[in-house]
Write a structure and sequence with these properties.
Elements: H1 2-5, E1 9-15, E2 24-30, H2 38-46, H3 50-63, E3 67-70, H4 77-87, E4 91-94, H5 111-135, E5 138-141, H6 144-150, E6 157-159, E7 176-181
Parallel strand pairs: 1-2, 3-4, 4-5, 5-6
Antiparallel strand pairs: 1-7, 3-7
């Protein structure tokens, strides 16, 4: 693994399933206890969820990273990003889709209850986007469409074409946060410039 070869130690914090990769020094998964009520689930996903916040804070205290790299994170944004911001650490986010611009680009919410859910989704998305922008130091966008379409501040956005081998199995978990300990330098953002 390239990061390990360069002397970096990587840890992963994910939702539901623990991330596994030979290059990881360790991993932890937060397992959400599914609320019976859909209203409660919505509240948990779109507002501060204390059990997740406590688990993420404990993980940060244990690992003591120099840099946080967030992959896609749609549920629990209003918990994850405020915790990351409060850590005071540089946060890099690879943006994989347009969910920060439109939570349901296919327009799947129909009927009168759909209209209410769309309204709630737009309010939640606006708050989450503010929290993401406040927490993230650098946005990495694999396409020009994402970079230009999401409208993040230009000085904090980089076009980074991600080259990868095709995979046949989806990685574990809905969201993964990678924490890195920088061994070679005290400037963890430098390698992304």
């Amino acid at each position: 693994d390239e990061a390990k070869r360069r002397g970096h130690e990587q840890w992963a914090f994910s939702l539901e399933q623990e991330a596994s990769h030979p290059g990881l020094a360790g991993a932890m998964a937060f397992r959400y206890r599914r609320a019976a009520s859909p209203v409660r689930r919505r509240w948990d996903f779109h507002h501060h969820h204390e059990p997740l916040a406590a688990a993420l804070q404990a993980f940060l205290a244990q690992v003591r990273p120099d840099l946080i790299h967030v992959q896609n994170c749609a549920p629990f944004r209003s918990t994850v990003f405020p915790v990351l911001r409060a850590s005071g650490l540089p946060v890099v986010m690879t943006v994989h889709d347009f969910s920060l611009a439109d939570p349901h680009p296919a327009g799947l919410r129909l009927g009168w209850s759909g209209a209410l859910k769309r309204w709630l989704d737009r309010r939640s998305l606006a708050r989450a986007r503010r929290e993401v922008e406040a927490a993230v130091t650098l946005f990495l966008c694999p396409t020009r469409a994402l970079r230009d379409g999401l409208g993040f501040p230009a000085e904090r956005t980089r076009l980074l074409h991600v080259l990868f081998d095709p995979i046949t199995k989806r990685p574990a978990g809905d969201a993964t946060v990678i924490f890195m300990r920088e061994k070679e330098t005290r400037d963890p953002i430098r390698s992304f410039d």
